[in-house]
Write a sequence for this structure.
């Protein structure tokens, strides 16, 4: 068994974000994201709203196409992490177009980037490459580059799928259907 998560973050209207994915809110809320599909709003003044898909049965409910649609008139991010295969990806969209992306996969080629990454990405990438080089000189056996897209996503949005979110709500995860 492994861990799977995907999410879309949008700075646009929450209703438009939900419509882009064809989902709607329920009355159910959770303190923590378990297996399922959720809406998450972070503590103010964050302007990011998230659709979060946790687990094997929900990952494919969010896609880059939905993120591109959610970015119309705004911007959106698409993130996916598959820890069993050690794949991670972060893609940025604005007005339906891909702006940049960063991905790490176990193909032995390290990080793959397209477009102009935000300036905050470069120091995170350089630190991870330095740490990876040091780890490879030691015992090796660890992939530190896998975490880079998640670090960049966290630096941009304030959300990281494997950390508790900072929210104004005690049960910040709204269950979607």
């Amino acid at each position: 068994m492994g861990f799977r998560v995907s999410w879309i973050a949008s700075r646009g209207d929450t209703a438009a974000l939900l419509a882009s994915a064809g989902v709607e809110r329920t009355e159910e809320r959770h303190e923590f994201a378990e297996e399922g599909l959720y809406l998450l709003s972070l503590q103010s003044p964050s302007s990011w709203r998230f659709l979060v898909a946790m687990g094997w049965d929900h990952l494919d409910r969010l896609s880059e196409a939905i993120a591109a649609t959610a970015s119309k008139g705004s911007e959106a991010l698409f993130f996916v992490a598959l820890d069993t295969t050690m794949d991670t990806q972060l893609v940025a969209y604005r007005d339906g177009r891909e702006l940049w992306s960063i991905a790490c996969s176990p193909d032995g080629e390290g990080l793959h980037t397209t477009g102009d990454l935000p300036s905050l990405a470069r120091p995170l990438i350089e630190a991870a490459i330095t740490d990876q080089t040091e780890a490879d000189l030691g015992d090796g056996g660890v992939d530190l580059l896998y975490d880079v897209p998640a670090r960049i996503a966290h630096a941009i949005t304030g959300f990281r799928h494997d950390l508790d979110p900072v929210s104004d709500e005690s049960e910040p995860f709204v269950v979607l259907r």
Q: What stands out?
A: The chain has a mean pLDDT of 92. The longest strand covers residues 75-82.
